[in-house]
């Protein structure tokens, strides 16, 4: 099974994260940021990843460090679990409706970290959560996972629905990309992705 475990401790956060790419969508998530917990739950369930996250962060400052550092750890976990990317599909995509919102997510496990983000948010907050942090999360993730991710709003006017659509679509596209092909080869004409 393709599993990874990440531990990260800084002056701002202390995080432990376990990931199983071949899971069933089980989750245990406590980041200290309720909205992020809700989004990661959808990500794990729709990606069929088993995900456990524990974070103690300086949320008395704001949620930025927690959200970004969890993105860093999740990206590292994907990179660690995938190794040299031998035998995976590499590409995945999803067009996901979330009520009035419609999100496109497309991922390439290219070995190159890049976020192509076009999800303008109608509001600055969802409850107490700063909506600008969603982009920060996915920037951190793509840099550490070494993948190219296109995340695009096709329709929608409710920030909660847009963000939830992003996380669920991202999970579904990654589920396709990490799927096993049954071939023992690197999915690249170069012979290497990392």
Describe this structure in words.
- The chain has 194 residues and is an alpha+beta fold.
- Helix content is 34%, strand content 31%.
- It has helices at 34-47, 64-82, 133-145, 159-178, and strands spanning 3-9, 13-20, 27-30, 50-57, 91-98, 101-108, 114-118, 125-126, 129-130, 148-155.
- The strands form three sheets. The protein has a four-stranded mixed beta sheet with strand order 1-2-4-3, with helices on one face. It has a four-stranded mixed beta sheet with strand order 5-6-10-7. A two-stranded antiparallel ribbon has the order 8-9.
- Strand 5 and strand 6 form a beta hairpin.
- The radius of gyration is 16 Å and the shape is globular.
What is the secondary structure topology, with strand pairs?
Elements: E1 3-9, E2 13-20, E3 27-30, H1 34-47, E4 50-57, H2 64-82, E5 91-98, E6 101-108, E7 114-118, E8 125-126, E9 129-130, H3 133-145, E10 148-155, H4 159-178
Parallel strand pairs: 3-4, 7-10
Antiparallel strand pairs: 1-2, 2-4, 5-6, 6-10, 8-9
Helix pairs in contact: 1-4, 2-3
